[in-house]
Design goal:
The structure is a single chain. Helix content is 30%, strand content 22%. The chain is α+β, with helices and mostly antiparallel strands. Strand 1 and strand 2 form a beta hairpin.
């Protein structure tokens, strides 16, 4: 879940003018700056690779995953502290960062799974996915799959009505599913998948 949340924060902070001086860059500097902290995108990539490497088991792989996880959490902590400091008591602006405000309510608030209402293929290599909204969601995660078995996250969005998936391979049959993000349970169940051939 940390990798998904990290991707969500990166998406929310990209181009967000409310937070102009992030302590941890979202992406690596070009040209590389050896004095800059490691960016959030690189931290996420390292965590994803370490998680994949643990699927075969082993103490070394597990240890490497734990190091990558802590490195990702350190980046999130520094970024969250900065966003909280900038916003102070401005909750609506703070929520645009992708972080959630702490709640003193201990009850679980489960999100309803969104529904895919339809998929359009009006532009070459692009699918427009139409979702129903989910109450109390702060955003949505979309995944695609070539076979309906192996899924890959391809988009985070703060709105639901129409989400464009671009750069898809012509002639492939893309299965798509979505879930809502937010609430005390962090994410809803996945929607029922829908498929469309990319033209």
């Amino acid at each position: 879940m940390i990798s998904v949340f990290l991707g969500w924060v990166i998406a929310c902070l990209t181009g967000n003018k409310a937070f102009p001086k992030l302590p941890i860059p979202l992406v690596a500097a070009a040209p590389p700056d050896p004095d800059a902290p490691v960016d959030l995108t690189t931290r996420k990539a390292r965590l994803d690779a370490a998680i994949t490497a643990t699927q075969g088991g082993g103490t070394l792989a597990t240890s490497a995953r734990d190091v990558a996880l802590q490195f990702a959490l350190d980046g999130l902590d520094a970024t969250a502290f900065y966003c909280q400091t900038v916003c102070r008591r401005d909750l609506p602006t703070f929520l645009t960062s992708g972080f959630q405000a702490a709640s003193k309510n201990n009850s679980q608030s489960e999100l309803d799974a969104p529904s895919i209402l339809g998929i359009d293929n009006d532009k070459p290599g692009e699918l427009d996915v139409h979702l129903s909204g989910s109450s109390n969601a702060v955003g949505y995660e979309l995944q695609t799959s070539p076979d309906g078995i192996t899924w890959t996250t391809v988009k985070f969005s703060t709105q639901a009505r129409t989400i464009a998936l671009i750069g898809l391979v012509f002639g492939t049959n893309q299965h798509v599913r979505a879930r809502a993000l937010g609430g005390s349970t962090e994410a809803s169940q996945w929607s029922q998948p829908m498929s469309c051939i990319v033209h």
